[in-house]
Amino acid sequence: MKTNLNVNGEDRTLDADVRTSLLDALRMHFDLTGTKKGCDHGQCGACTVLVNGRRINSCLTLACMHDGDEITTIEGIGTAPDLSALQAAFVAHDGYQCGYCTPGQICSATAMLEEFRMGWPSNVTDDVTASPDVTLEEVAERMSGNLCRCAAYPNIRDAIMEVAEAKA
Ligand code: FES
Ligand code: FES
């Protein structure tokens, strides 16, 4: 089945079995291996990408469901000579050890900052009618779907908080 996707600003056509997950389409058909496969069933967040600006576990969705959608992977967030603010903060704060979870962490945090900007509440927001404050508790809750087996959480947290507070 053919599916038209815009991946990192480029129009791509996927010709694959309808059962192909978005994760496998990105990694195996488009060679975008920055997006990682950890658990392959929605438990770890390593496969997080943005679909039309919203974060999603790409292992849990079929590529053919995204005809016409804009997909952003870690390769589209920034490049080595032109890092995004979050990517630079992860480097500055040493927010990784093996790095396997890092693309998912950064894609997820990128969308999370946008969720703050739009005033979306989380499970720990006291007043859901007000714009949520950027607190450690809020960030921890909103990033709870992204696991780090190396437990680099303190540095990941510092990197994200630096950027979140700068944007607040
Ligand atoms: Fe998708 Fe773990 S690989 S959530
Ligand atoms: Fe190794 Fe997070 S840095 S899993």
> What class would the helix/strand composition place it in?
alpha+beta
Indicate the overall shape: globular
- CATH fold field value of the largest domain: DNA polymerase, domain 1
What's the structural domain tally? 2
Strand content: 5-15%
Strands in their spatial order, largest beta sheet: 2-1-5-3-4
Question: Quick one: biggest sheet?
Answer: 5 strands, mixed
**Count of extended strands:** 5
Q: Helix and strand string, N-terminal first?
A: EEHEEEHHHHH
Low-confidence runs (pLDDT<50, min 5 residues)?
none
Determine the fraction of residues in helical runs and give it as a percent range. 25-40%
Counting DSSP H or I runs of 4 or more residues, the number of helices is 6
Give an overview of the whole structure.
The longest helix has 16 residues, at 102-117. This protein starts with a strand and ends with a helix. The protein has two domains: 2-77, Ubiquitin-like (UB roll) (Roll); 85-167, DNA polymerase, domain 1 (Orthogonal Bundle). The model has no long low-confidence stretch (mean pLDDT 96). Helices cover 35% and strands 14% of the residues. Helix 3 (85-92) packs across helix 6 (153-167) and helix 4 packs parallel to helix 6. By secondary structure, it is an alpha+beta fold. It is built from six helices and five strands; from the N terminus they run ββαβββααααα. A hairpin with a 2-residue loop joins strand 3 and strand 4 (54-57). The structure holds FE2/S2 (inorganic) cluster (2 copies). One FE2/S2 (inorganic) cluster is lined by residues 37-40, 42-47, 57, 59.
